[in-house]
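In keeping with the milestone schedule agreed at the kick-off meeting, the structural modelling team has produced records for the first pair of proteins. Each record is given below as a sequence line and a structure-token line. The laboratory manager (R.T.) confirmed that both were archived under the project's standard naming scheme.
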Amino acid sequence: VHVSASFRVLFVGSSMRGWTATSTGLPDEKGGSGLEVTSGAVALYDCSVQGGAGNTGFFYGGLGGDGARVVLGGLFASGCTFEGGKGGFAEDFLPAPGGDGGNGLRIESSAQAQLVDNVTLGGAGGGSFAGPPGIPGLAISSAAGATVVQHAAAKRVYDAAPIVGDAQAIDIAVTGAVGDALSLLRGLQAAYTPQV
């Protein structure tokens, strides 16, 4: 998933996977990021984001893709899993290393991430026919100047049916911590009525 120049992007319960590099030989090819934000603001709730694996290289193995990479803008994530892709295999008889694993979450210098109750995992390093394995990716990689805040709170869950008819009951499930305040807003008319 690629987000560019979009500042109101929301994903709930989504699964995102970066492409797996499939070329063989030279040059080594990096796997894709599960989510890449080149400019924008993105919120994720209960999502799974995984980078793709690097290719099998004739010399070096390809690098694993990052789970999510934020270049410019911001990311808010709650209850999500970010995992880097596995590095590719180096199949040359020379002692070349396997590809390094991707980072679970990569935040560049002009970006920020606000994180609540997530799991971040670096991808495994790739193997090698005659050389050392690749280095595992980092759980979170942040460049100088980046802002990464891991909030101590547990995630909150609010779940309700997306559509109900007039005068029908609606079930609402809320999960939180002791002492949380809950507000439920209601209206007597629809906030949006499509023009016919």
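The second protein of the pair:
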Amino acid sequence: QEIQEMQDRQNMANIPEIQSIQGIHNVQATNRAPMITYTALTSPVALVFYTEEQTTAIRDHTIYTNRCVYPIVTIEGNESAAAKINADIQKRVDAYQASANTFSFAEDDYQHYVEEDFLPSYYDELIFTAARADNRVISFLVMDQSYGGGAHGMDYYTGLNYDTKTGERISFSELSDNTDRFRQDTLAYHQSLAAT
């Protein structure tokens, strides 16, 4: 545990702070800080998760939150594979940040909701969760969710699988010699799980 705490402190020293932003609305950003650390003793893979969050408030009410939780991967003895994985993850984080557009709904709807005395908080979130991290495969479940008014938010889930040795994405077609049959079997398995 002491070694892990030293690694966390070292990681924090190498990460730039996110500066607070002041504009028409009060926008506050948190510093990037490790949220969860997964390290398997028998694996060369370490995952450190970081959170970036910005909130926008009008008159002390948070109208919008943008939150991203993403990993930084290290692979002992294989920095090039880790760099490929981290570059792919960063590309996804950047695309998410560029497309997060619920803030405009929050601003537009604020006045309407104030008049009704109902103030929802809109949000965009991209959250990576580790499913596997070992010397063969690194897998993440990625949840992209948003709320822009209405009865419920929108959730999208994506699985990302990487080859630990090469850093390349593992596609569905690489998992079997008979992709169609494998896809059918996988679908049938998940349908049987859903039926229980």
